[in-house]
Design goal:
- The structure is a single chain.
- By secondary structure, the protein is an alpha+beta fold.
- The chain has three domains: 11-406, Glycosidases (TIM Barrel), CATH 3.20.20; 445-601, Jelly Rolls; 613-694, Immunoglobulin-like (Sandwich).
- A hairpin with a 4-residue loop joins β28 (641-648) and β29.
- α1 (111-124) crosses α2 (141-161) and α6 packs parallel to α7 (333-344).
- The longest helix is centred in the middle third of the chain and has 22 residues, at 278-299.
Length: 695
Amino acid sequence: MKTRVPVFIIITIFICGSFGASAQVDNKLVGKIICGYQAWFNCYGDGSPVERWAHWSGGKYRSNDGFPAPGHLSFEVYPDVSGYDETGLFQTGFANFADGTPSKLYSAYKQDIIEKHFEWMKAYGIDGIALQRFLGETRDGVFKRNRDSIAVRVKNAAEKYDRIYYIMYDMSADDVDYFKNDWEHLENDLKITQSSNYATQNGKPVICIWGFGLNTRVNAPENSLTIINWLKDKGYYVIGGVPTNWRTGTSDSYSGYANVYDAFNMISPWSVGRFNNTAGIESFKSSYLVPDLAYCQSKGIDYQPVLFSGFSWSNWHAGSENKKNEIPRNKGAFFWQQFYNIKSLNIPSAYIAMFDEYDEGTNILKMADSFLAIPANQYFVTSSADGTFISSDFYLRLAGKATKVIKGLEPLTSDAGVPYSSAPIWFRTSVEQGYDAILQKTNDIESSNNVAGYNSSLTPQCLALYGDTPHYGNYSIRFQGSNKASNAYCNFNLFDVDIPVNSDTWLSFWNYPLDENGKCAIVDLLMTDGTRLKNVNATDINGNSMKPAAGRGKINEWTETVCNIGKWLNGKTIDKILIAYEGNSNTGNFSGNMDDISIIDRKDTPTGINSIKNIIHNNIALYISNEFLKIDAQNYGKGQLLTINIYNIQGVLLMREYMLSGSIHNVSIQSLRKGIYVLSIEDKKEIILNQKISK
């Protein structure tokens, strides 16, 4: 397997064939934005020739050994896998997610996974992909068969969803004959170019070669030129994925490659990692984009600049702190500024590196949106890592917007104008630093009356605290103050949002009162028209009033609140998320914590973790929802191995898991259909709980 480095050169080759463009498919390259597509993720058991974990981690051949787990992984961003069919997902060694969902990863070998990616490309308006083919990898017959299979699957998916594609080799020029044989294999045996969806330019099929001239590869300009000319003689339009400094032959580029670069039909210089902030992007524009474009125009060469969303490499470096979120995405502004510069120079094409590069955190494909959507025992970059909630699909939407702008279908603006969040998950946070939406300001009081600080200090407080009895993770929101009169209230600003409410919109949060008055608080919502959730006589899923003064929860205990806010706020737009305290007749201090706030659209009725609570003998508590079963055995001794069995009503064992007494364990029951089941928990072969449960 090839060792990845943070800089790459990719050359794309287009082949001229006898086929013509379909009446339904515009397969011309210039004028489009293309995404690099790795499709190199394998899981043991996926049926692929690889027969191991690959790229998620380094697994052993024909074995589940080396599966992804803490300390053994090779990727930086956890994908959002909620939209995939279960048949394409495989269990890892990471902890479950916050809601008990098992931590699984997808295999790109699966046809339905690739088709889902192309379905999303079409849905978000992305033109197509350049399928990466690492020439060195194909020297291993197992990996060659796998890449061949992926190429055919990509062809089929592109045709199904009307996207374009072409092959992009990552290689050096040290083996001319091997490359020729491999390419003719794709042409003649796999017939990869024989599709109306295969990209063309000037009537010629496209191919890209990435790596010629890069000073970490073989220095062989004669061989490089031989390959380019061979392809052009066969009728291909050849793209060169070249070093950043190709034009000057310095730094990352060998000197003496001018004839090689000039021979390409299109130049696509690598830019990933070449800048990391606003100033760097602007400097890159003046030092590279402008002179590179001028040079290409003078030589009659097309120009395809590279865009990237961000970069991170911590998990490749043993969790190095300074490599976490190393080049921040800056809520999409980093990507959009690059695109703005490209479009403002009237450059008609661009290349996004990459569609699915979870390894180094440059992906635009759906990603975990928060700490609640990743395994709790391993660091990963999330889409909300810069402190504002960003939906998992935000970068797909951003790329779709860029595609419309580059085609002239929408105007170029300095701000992309793409909403941060989208349905169905509009917002969620566990206020974890570096993962989640965090408080915009400490002690931000929107309005108050007859409230002072805690113990009569000057200012009521609302802030995120580390280790302060959080519900999940390490942080929770502490609010506190002092009630000076019976009509006291205090509204703390938490987050500015822009969330449309429909009839299926739900709010949920957890509260932890620290005193009696601390019960008199809720997570409140302020609409753009001035309406507040606390004032519309709303009730939660258990029929309890959402008025803060009604009180909720027990002192020093976490309680979940779930409310279908769409019943009362349908058609309105949420402007702010707040904590609202309203005093009852008791004056004095109030304090408590809030955690794990979410606003989600869903058709079904969530039961909520805390809405069904069955306290069973032997001090074991069950919390049941449609998604998972939470078993609380904290009061059943400590350190004893418990066996958890779930049977259908006929007594057939469906699931078995293990836990230690003295702890809490979540069992995902998403795979179970609605019905009646039997839960049995055993301690040393003795059944200590036997309970019917329903889903």
